[in-house]
């Protein structure tokens, strides 16, 4: 089974974001990954609801929205209305994760949980039946272009074992430092979806790069 690819629009040229979205529409990408950063939960600010809505207006691929923000519950409905098909919240930002996941499902979106490099996959055991995808951060969240953290492979393998034990259909998404150098190894470890930003948008042929990642 081939990997699903979710190019991160954060790495696109913001002055030409419509053309970037149209390029992704014409590519083999499965999702458009939208990183929302508030400068509080992570040391960076990206964009918010108006840009997400603008991306959605031009997108033919589902939006995979990653909320790297404090108090994500306040904005779930707004991002769903802005076009999010998947909404991922950070485990570290949710005091009541079970309730948050239920709220995302009640909005008709797929519910994702992102975990930082220091967060153990075992902490998701009691909520795995409500999680559609786990976004494993393979860099520290906040800035693109960071070096891939090698411990990610064993972390993905442990998470895959946990998913199988629980009999869950949860997908594993990898976010950060993804390239052709590690795509096959991540797939072998159990990854289903790869988020790639700089590697796609800084390449000579982004569409070809997406195709190659998909076939890793």
TrEMBL record:
Single annotated GO MF: metal ion binding
Keywords: Carbohydrate metabolism, Cobalt, Isomerase, Manganese, Metal-binding, Zinc
Keyword check for Isomerase: yes
Transmembrane region(s): none
Gene Ontology biological-process entries: pentose catabolic process; pentose-phosphate shunt
GO CC terms: cytoplasm
Pathway: Carbohydrate degradation
Stored InterPro entries: Aldolase_TIM, Ribul_P_3_epim, Ribul_P_3_epim-like, RibuloseP-bd_barrel
Entry binding sites for a divalent metal cation: 33, 35, 66, 175
The record's free-text note on cofactor binding: Binds 1 divalent metal cation per subunit.
Catalyses which reaction(s): D-ribulose 5-phosphate = D-xylulose 5-phosphate
Binding site for substrate: 8, 66, 142-145, 175-177, 197-198
Cofactor: Mn(2+); Zn(2+); Co(2+); a divalent metal cation
Keyword Manganese: yes
One Pfam family this sequence matches: Ribul_P_3_epim
Annotated EC: 5.1.3.1
Source superkingdom: Bacteria
Assigned protein family: Belongs to the ribulose-phosphate 3-epimerase family.
Protein function: Catalyzes the reversible epimerization of D-ribulose 5-phosphate to D-xylulose 5-phosphate.
Protein name (Swiss-Prot/TrEMBL): Ribulose-phosphate 3-epimerase
């Amino acid at each position: 089974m081939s990997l699903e690819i979710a190019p991160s629009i954060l790495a696109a040229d913001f002055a030409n974001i419509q053309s970037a979205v149209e390029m992704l529409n014409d590519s083999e990408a499965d999702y458009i990954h939208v990183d929302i950063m508030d400068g509080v939960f992570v040391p960076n600010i990206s964009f918010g609801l108006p840009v997400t809505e603008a991306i959605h207006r031009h997108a033919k691929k589902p939006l995979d929205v990653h909320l790297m923000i404090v108090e994500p519950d306040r904005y779930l409905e707004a991002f769903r209305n802005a076009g999010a098909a998947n909404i991922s919240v950070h485990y570290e930002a949710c005091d009541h994760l079970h309730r948050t996941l239920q709220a995302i499902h009640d909005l008709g979106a797929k519910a994702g949980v992102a975990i930082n490099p220091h967060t153990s996959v075992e902490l998701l055991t009691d909520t795995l039946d409500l999680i559609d995808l786990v976004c494993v951060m393979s860099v520290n969240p906040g800035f693109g272009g960071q070096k891939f953290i090698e411990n990610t492979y064993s972390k993905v393998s442990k998470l895959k074992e946990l998913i199988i034990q629980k009999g869950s259909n949860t997908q594993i998404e990898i976010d950060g430092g993804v390239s052709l150098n590690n795509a096959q190894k991540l797939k072998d470890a159990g990854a289903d979806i790869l988020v790639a930003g700089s590697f796609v948008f800084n390449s000579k042929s982004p569409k070809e790069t997406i195709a190659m990642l998909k076939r890793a």
